[in-house]
Amino acid sequence: MSRPEDTLPPDLFYNDSESRKYTTSSRIQNIQSDMTHRALELLDLSSPSFILDIGCGSGLSGEILSAVPPEEGGPHEWIGMDISASMLGIALDRDVDGDVMLADIGQGVPFRAGSFDAAVSISAIQWLCNEDTSEDTAQTRLGRFFNGLYASLRRGGRAVCQFYPKNEIQRSMISSAAIKAGFGAGILEDDPETKNSKLYLVLTVGGGDMAGSGDITSIVKGMDGVNVMDGRRKRDRDKVKRGEMKKGGKAWILKKKEQMERKGKVVKNSSKYTGRQRGPKF
């Protein structure tokens, strides 16, 4: 069975018919509910909050945010973004409590800095890995999204993004883009190595508590199966590597060629002459 992301861009795939089918499916409603409650558990919000719902669709997740009881820290107010006009039309017909806007998250998150306490995204950000045009690469779209999301969250804010990467390359691409934007990032996998496996990217904006454990997300501390990535340490390692790797040298050239190959670019084969020092020109 082909993945929706491999067939059409999201604004075309989720047309009127597909949007109605998605929204009215009891199976999808149950899955969406389970994943949204899991995301709320990871956000660990203790009081009513202002939440950005990324890829909100027809408002299935938003309804759950609005229905959180006071004893569990709710109810929450929310704004939803989605690229599908059909999905948002159904959300308006269903009279959801949150405000919704038509927007492509690959072009950024168009809100004032520090607007939101938290953000949630269910089954959306893997669409950013698709390159619909040669000019708009996956790395560019992911960079715009995570940079915009980082800016829109208040300091100490959190985001949880459930996503379905096609492979390890996409998983790494997404988490690396989040770290590059400045987030503390942890990946939690529920039901690993099963067909029901679910991945959650847990993000924090500043104020991470290292507490000697290296877990800068704080909220995933002690959980089983969590892979925590500390972007600050990676940047420190990269600085050391850059110091050892002279620009224009053989190691530098080989590293650049490897990066280009990962992006699918055609590069010339390396040889013993790669990176050689040329003699003076007369």
Characteristic terms for this protein:
single chain, alpha/beta, 8 strands, elongated
Give the overall shape, derived from the CA principal axes.
elongated
Number of strands: 8
Computed structural class: alpha/beta
* Poorly predicted runs: 208-216
Per DSSP, what share of the residues sits in E-state strands of 2 or more residues? 15-25%
What spatial order of strands do you see in the largest sheet?
3-2-1-4-5-7-6-8
* Major sheet summary line: 8 strands, mixed
Mean pLDDT figure: 84
Order of helices and strands: HHHEHEHEEHEHEEEHH
End-to-end C-alpha gap: 63 Å
Oligomer category: single chain
Radius of gyration, CA atoms, in whole angstroms? 21 Å
Number of helices: 9
Relative helix content: 25-40%
Structure description:
This protein is α/β, with parallel strands linked by helices and 282 residues long. The chain is 37% helix and 18% strand. The chain has an 8-stranded mixed sheet with strand order 3-2-1-4-5-7-6-8, sandwiched between helices. Strand 2, helix 5 (85-93) and strand 3 (99-102) form a beta-alpha-beta unit. Helix 3 (26-43) packs across helix 4 (60-66) and helix 6 crosses helix 7 (168-181). It is elongated and about 75 Å long.
